[in-house]
Design goal:
The chain has 341 residues and is α/β, with parallel strands linked by helices. The protein is built from 13 helices and ten strands.
Amino acid sequence: MIFRRRPAAVSLALQGGGAHGAFTWGVIDALLERGVNFAAASGASAGAMNAVVLAQGWSRGGADGARAALHAFWQAIAERVPPLWHLPGDPPQLAPMGLALLAWSRWFAPSQLNPLNLNPLRDVLAAQIDFERLRSTRGMALFIAATEVARGRLRLVRRPALTIDAVLASACLPQVAHPVLIDGQPHWDGAFSANPALWPLVREVTADDLLLVTLSPLGERSPPSSAEDIAERVRDIAFTAPFLREARWLAEVHADALQRPWPRFGSDRRLARLRWHLIDADDTLAKLHSHTRLVPDWAFIQRLRDAGRERVARWFEDSGPALSARSSIDPLAVFGESASV
């Protein structure tokens, strides 16, 4: 079902996940096709990439421009995969060279493994994004998360201050990439501190519809048993915990605001208007090995994009009418405490 009326603008919260971010590309593509308008996007890592490319494309050609920009970006990412990096398949797998690099990253710093600091993402972003134009033009608000290495704090970069280094910092995995300098300070992946940041979408944006696009599974998972599975689960928790903590806090203050007597003022009024929506990738990504986040194989990326588009089609059947009208999820049920102590 394609929207015949134009709904109110939506704020997007986009999680990171490497190549799995192609699922989010599919989600955004399908939303644009349905006439959904975006007031803002907050993102970390691959979510930051999708947010910036979306804003770039929209500024040049509206919805059609945004869809074309996202396609061109992900295709360019796939074209920059090093030779012999992965083995094609469904899903693809890291080749011995890729596995060896990951193993070496446990013993050698990025400055030793990559002394020239080669980063293909920099070349792709430089070719795809006009950062000067983005900074100087009006449009959807952007909140790009990076993590300060020295203090472990969130650094949130907004559209007027956006640079290529800010986006690269948001996607900087410390095991395989040099820290990225912003104002002379080293930064790592934004998912360590916000994956993505939610509060700015409420505090600084007037849109009442908040749409979360998650790549980390939200459902219950079996406890890991092997050493490899334990290490993978530890990484997942580290990247997901900041988001779950902020989402739970926001759900609680939202519930508190709804309980305040009318008329409401200030932040209570803003929070009470908030409408929550969630599009998750659990069915698509939950069973994939974490290594597939490092494999931007074009066929795999297109499958993830198509899965994102299909997920939006199902979501619109169940929840689409809620846009501009009401929340389609109970945020306390999704993000609240699982047990009382």
